Structure to design on (307 residues):
């Protein structure tokens, strides 16, 4: 994603050319929708939340400082919105202790086992307490970049690391059998 | 638990935007851009009235308070005369009605929030 393209489109929008905002939407729709999906695990709701995020970006575009990185500002705004939305209407989550572990994998059904594994892990992340869930979600979404993830959540890096550690420990404790099973290709 | 396995499971979670997403966002953005700006609070019109109301209230408190203080015994402690002054000013200025209106407003807001949350 080109920072110069973002800057050019932003300047056009701020000077009155609303259609220039489409460039920003096209470049950032996939990351924003995927970030929302990581929070709510519902495609329809993820797109609704991402649309609201873009609307807020449009309303507050005049507040973006040119010396700041646009992507950081964008993700920070979107993350705050998604967290608020999930506080308002929580995602349907099964309590962590009730999430069943999948059966042992077999080579004949490796595709199904992988899907089930991923589904269980998503459920387990959704079931974490909000502050650990947000930390885990943001960290992995931003490609394990602590600094970017911390900035998007409005936390210090130390606080994020601490919450990340705690969240992963909870996942390890709840899903030891799942996580200790090798992928079929590694067996 | 092996870290790389957890990392792989947590990192892989991608979806593609639906075909009409951009168009839907731009429709919403154009509606937002076409909407009239919010009406600013008319401070220039409101400030003189607020100043007059404040002065009137202060005058009421001063006049009523003076009457109350003259009516209380000389040996009464300060807090008795002050609380009598406040009570008199409160009743005379329609404070009871104001409180009743606030309670009714609060109950209406709570009820409507309860009903709207149930619908969700």
């Amino acid at each position: 994603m080109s920072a110069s393209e973002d800057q050019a489109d932003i300047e056009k929008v701020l000077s009155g050319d609303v259609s220039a905002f489409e460039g920003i939407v096209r470049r950032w729709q996939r990351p924003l929708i995927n970030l929302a999906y990581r929070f709510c695990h519902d495609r329809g709701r993820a797109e609704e939340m991402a649309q609201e995020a873009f609307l807020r970006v449009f309303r507050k575009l005049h507040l973006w400082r040119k010396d700041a990185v646009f992507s950081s500002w964008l993700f920070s705004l979107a993350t705050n919105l998604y967290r608020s939305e999930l506080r308002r209407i929580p995602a349907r989550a099964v309590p962590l202790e009730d999430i069943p572990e999948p059966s042992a994998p077999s080579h004949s059904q490796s595709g199904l086992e992988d899907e089930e594994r991923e589904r269980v892990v998503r459920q387990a992340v959704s079931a974490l307490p909000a502050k650990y869930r947000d930390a885990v979600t943001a960290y992995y979404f931003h490609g394990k970049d602590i600094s970017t993830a911390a900035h998007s959540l409005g936390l210090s890096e130390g606080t994020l690391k601490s919450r990340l550690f705690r969240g992963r420990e909870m996942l390890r404790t709840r899903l030891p059998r799942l996580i200790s099973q090798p992928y079929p290709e590694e067996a | 638990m092996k870290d790389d396995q957890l990392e792989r499971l947590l990192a892989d979670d991608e979806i593609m935007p639906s075909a009409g997403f951009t168009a839907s966002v731009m429709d919403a953005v154009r509606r937002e851009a076409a909407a009239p700006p919010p009406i600013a609070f008319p401070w220039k019109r409101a400030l003189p009235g607020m100043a007059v109301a404040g002065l009137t209230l202060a005058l009421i408190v001063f006049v009523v308070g003076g009457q109350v203080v003259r009516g209380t015994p000389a040996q009464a402690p300060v807090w008795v005369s002050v609380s009598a002054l406040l009570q008199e000013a409160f009743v005379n200025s329609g404070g009871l009605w104001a409180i009743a209106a606030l309670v009714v407003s609060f109950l209406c807001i709570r009820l409507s929030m309860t009903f709207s949350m149930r619908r969700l």
